[in-house]
Amino acid sequence: MAFVKAETIWMNGRLIPWEQATVHVLSHVIHYGSCIFEGIRCYKTPKGPAVFRLRDHADRLFDGCRIYRMEIPYTREEIESAILETVRANRLEACYVRPLVYRGYESLGVDPFPCPIDVAIAAYPWGAYLGKDAAEKGVDVMVSSWRRPAPDTLPAMAKASANYMNSQLIKMEALVNGYAEGIALDAAGYVSEGSGENLFIVKKGTLYTPPLTASILPGITRQTIVQLAQDLKVPLVERSIPREALYTADEVFFVGTAAEVTPIRTIDRVAVGRGKKGEITSRFQTEYKSLTSGQIDDRHHWLSHV
Fold first, then answer.
1. Is the pTM of this model over 0.90?
2. What does the mean pLDDT of the chain come to?
3. Residue 150: helix, strand or coil by DSSP?
4. Are 207 and 252 in contact, with CB atoms under 8 Å apart?
5. Is 141 exposed, middle or buried (0-12, 13-18, 19+ CB in 10 A)?
6. Which end of the chain is flanked by fewer CB atoms within 10 Å, N or C?
7. Are residues 174 and 280 in the same domain?
8. Has 171 been annotated as catalytic?
9. Catalytic one among 132, 159, 204, 277?
């Protein structure tokens, strides 16, 4: 999806024009993928723009940097304030926010420690991630031939740029074969996640989702659905899911900041349930949309108003 440019980007403590937000070609991040980032949505609400689960995204950003020994030169509160400032400065009612912490320009060995830690925050308009009709009609996906990295290779709990080389392989394979997205298995052959989404299945009224040990990102939207399952009194089980359970599920749906709640229509050309959005998927979709848009009470205090 092409960028719809905003006016400014926050870089290392100040807002600069969009076109000037550049890095040196010999920056460590370009050569070794040394970057931790977040994807956050800001929604239009009756009280003005509001960032969804800002503190949780900031916490995950700091956790990922801790794993990779990257000391962020700002506090959580300063990063959260900068995110709100960036949205405000660009006068955006609804947008996608991309904070990133990366190793910059100093030396070019694998050893990252000599390189400075730079921080940038961009905010820009972004619509439906998997297509404008995906939320209603669902998407066609395939089980990818590419697996997620084993737990002792690249840490899946860090939202690291390097991990998304694997995601690109999954996504490209799906697209060139005529699918909207791919589902990866983990190193043991159990269901993991999409290239940029967590996954839930529904069977006989119960919701199932893979555990963190399936090499999945600890998704903020995934956490939201887990909480909403309690709110809506939908039974939920977190456990390893064999591939064949995808074909016998009543419903399957992706969740993610970009994808929000997107039903899956077919997997490997096998219809999921009746081949259209199911009742439970629809319930979560409606509840999620109502909460993020401020149409119902923000009972979990997830909205940070700009």
1. yes
2. 96
3. coil
4. no
5. buried
6. N
7. yes
8. no
9. 159
